[in-house]
Design goal:
heterodimer, A: mainly alpha, ABC transporter involved in vitamin B12 uptake, BtuC, B: alpha/beta, Rossmann fold, three-stranded antiparallel sheet
Amino acid sequence: MIGPFSDPVMQRALVEVTLVGVCGGALGCWVIFYGLSYASESLAHGLFPGLVAAALLGLPLVLGAGVGLVAAALAVAVASRVPGVGRNVAVAVVVTSLFGLGVLLALSPASPPGIQALLFGDVLGANDADLALSGALALGIVGALWLLHGRLLAVGFDRDFARSLGVSAAAADAAVLTLLAGAILVGVQGMGNLLVVAVLIGPAATARQLSSRMAPMMLLSVAVAALAGAAGLCLSYYAGTAAGASIAAALVAAYLASAFGRRSRLPITVEEVP
Amino acid sequence: MNRAAASHEADGGPLISATSDRDVLAEAAGLTVGYGGVAAIEDVSFRVSRGDRIALLGPNGGGKTTLLRSITGEADRISGSLRVSASWATVPQTERSRLDYPVSALDVAMMGSLASLPWWRQPGRRERAAALQALERVGMVKLAGATFGELSAGQRQRVLIARGLVQDAGLLLLDEPFTGLDASSSDRLETLIGALATEERGILIATHDLEQARRWDLVVCLNRRQIAFGPPGEVLDLAVLEATYGGAIVAIPDSGGLGILPPHHHHQS
């Protein structure tokens, strides 16, 4: 294990995948229970033109991704107000349009090489400034999840009852979506536009099979994400495979193992207390 | 189970008379409510005072749930007036809550404490103690650590009531809490409801059980509009029941009373 990580490039990559794992693993649990898996995939794909524009203009990718996210969210909000268009349809139309626009930009003769890194990520290309920004975002996301934990839990469990507690379900949704946007920003550099969703959904889906309480589930999910990140980097180092795709493969393997492991477990029964 | 209620009475009990304004938890007059401007129940007038157990009777689609939702603000007031002067807690049908959700019974009870905490504060040791006390009150403290979704329907109802107790709601809104419960769970829940009423809470219970409703303090009969409101002994006669349930009334030979044909329940799992 020391072998691959004696290289500074690999060390930075390890820090990067760990930060991505902390954000994606912790937030992913809320994404799953708030039914936002589709939204997270849509947001990640919808920001593609922003990424490409940033690459063409030579601006930081995170800046392009941020602008792309806001544009995608606004476009979805506008499209879902068109009468007769359902929310899912609006999301699908906006996201495919934006993604197509990004691909058009990316394939223009003027675009520099390395566009493929935008789609599939370049975890080995992270510099110290990228890591500092990812670290700050990760800290913010973890801090917000810590503060909001009780309220997010109550809203996810029973939205109607949350009203009687003075907890706004809309505010909780907005908070999770905002944090989701932040986690995508952290992850898109390393995992790319297409694979960032794997870190958001994979670890949480794995942890859900193995835990029946929210806080342990989040910790487990972070651990799965970080371990799969390190495993993916090793695989990529030794087998010469693409880093982002190797991490995604490790996550899928973890999920499959947990799903099969769970099937062999005995169902838990609760005795009636007289 | 009546310990808390007994100690309350030993303190001298309420000093205000039963008809005092302070005792009114909710009051509706000529209320019409619905969704998106379309009326679901019309002309509803009732009053909930401290200690009242009020049955909401009516066929499926008659407006029982809508009446509860008018208090929570989920249904829109179209005309008339509604004054809710107490904090309220809902005890929904547990099929509506998530059974795959990663929380324990204690977690659920503790959610009631969020009402009294600022948004940045997490429930702590004090809130945990209050939640355990409420679970003790509903006879669920031994299962405090069990996963909510793995409890029986009756146990889940009691945990949700504990959540309302932690919230210290004056008004408890129970939506068909007896649906899917076996006889012993049903008896437990009814005893608990009685004990909570003696603690000066007001309890609204949507139910299909006419005999149960007769044992409580007041009934509201609903069938798209309010058919009757008052003590069950005065209100529940054949004319009212026919207007409430349509033709589905049968005489019960043994008791000499009246019953309704079993309504169609929509079990979801």
